[in-house]
Design brief:
homodimer; about 180 residues; mainly alpha; DNA-binding
DNA sequence: GTCTATATCTCGATAGAC
DNA sequence: GTCTATCGAGATATAGAC
């Protein structure tokens, strides 16, 4: 691992946050450069094109979610609860990274879609290994996906619109896994 | 109800499909006009701005999903199964309409977000009335949302990635509602 | 390694012919 | 009611100074 220049990291973070927080359209080269504190020309020294910027983001995505998978596999409450618990968007760096890649995938980016699908298959494997049954594992995955999608499009929360807390959702997950709450 | 001109309908359909199938960025005035078979100037005669185009789409959304809610309330299998069953994206007009509004909401449009939230609260009410319990209703809603989101970002299906059919997901829903499969 | 300047393209919207 | 022509803003990307 060669230590990447500081500006490179700052540019990737700026790109991630702009896409996640203000949408793909807001993440212009100029806006990304400004948020990272460099000029447009400076950005284009590190990433020769917008596509290169995306490629850099997907590399970070794969690396960070490989680590997250380790945490999920080792969680004392089990992968299912870990997955659903962390599917509530709370604005962490990892949340923003996921949402950014999700938005790019929804925007039509094929490599983003592939990176996302690979990560999700990994999660499904862990949940299935825990609950034994494929359909139940899928149902739990879908709940997590729904939670993420719902809580990530701008501050809306199941608490607000559906009157249900995360703990109550987790209790339903426990009913499915057979774990006592 | 005044009968709207044919071109108006064609433009709204073109806008809906471009947003749903190729993303918000692809839905430029020129692309929408071309898909509807008119010129950019022709489009701007019917809709004076891009915002007016969005407003027209949201009106169609509200009208069509008010009708869908009637079907959901009257479904012989019950609202929960109806909801999850129809949450699998199959590319119908109603599917494309929902995905289009979802994408616009995710892109930051406040009116799109409001229209979506109102519709989802309506669904939640029906599901809760059926299952009795708020948390269970929310869990079912989340499964549907997850299914929609997953199956709508370009052809991916739970069957393909998770090895689970819609019927198997519905069986899990039945476990939650207490209905026998 | 970072900047300014600029070329080129595409977007939304206007104007006016038909 | 629909078209072509065009404007002004803002986008990506290039060139070259420092």
């Amino acid at each position: 691992m060669s230590r990447p220049p500081k500006a490179r990291e700052a540019l990737l973070s700026a790109y991630r946050d702009l896409v996640a927080l203000e949408g793909e359209r807001a993440a212009t080269l100029e806006a990304v450069a400004a948020r990272a504190g460099v000029s447009k020309g400076g950005l284009l020294y590190h990433f020769g094109s917008k596509e290169a910027l995306l490629k850099g983001l997907l590399e970070a995505f794969r690396a960070d979610f490989a680590l997250d998978r380790e945490l999920m596999a080792a969680d004392p409450e089990g992968p299912s609860r870990y997955f659903v618990r962390t599917s509530l968007y709370t604005g962490t760096e990892l949340d923003r990274l996921f949402v950014a890649v999700l938005r790019l995938a929804q925007g039509g980016s094929v490599p983003a879609r592939e990176a996302l699908a690979a990560t999700e298959r990994g999660w499904h494997e862990l949940v299935r290994a825990e609950v034994g049954d494929t359909a139940t594992a899928t149902a739990i995955m879908l709940m997590g996906e729904g939670l993420y999608q719902y809580s990530s499009y701008s501050g809306a929360r199941p608490e607000a619109d559906f009157g249900t807390s995360l703990d109550e959702v987790l209790a339903v997950v426990d009913r499915l896994t057979g774990r006592r709450s």
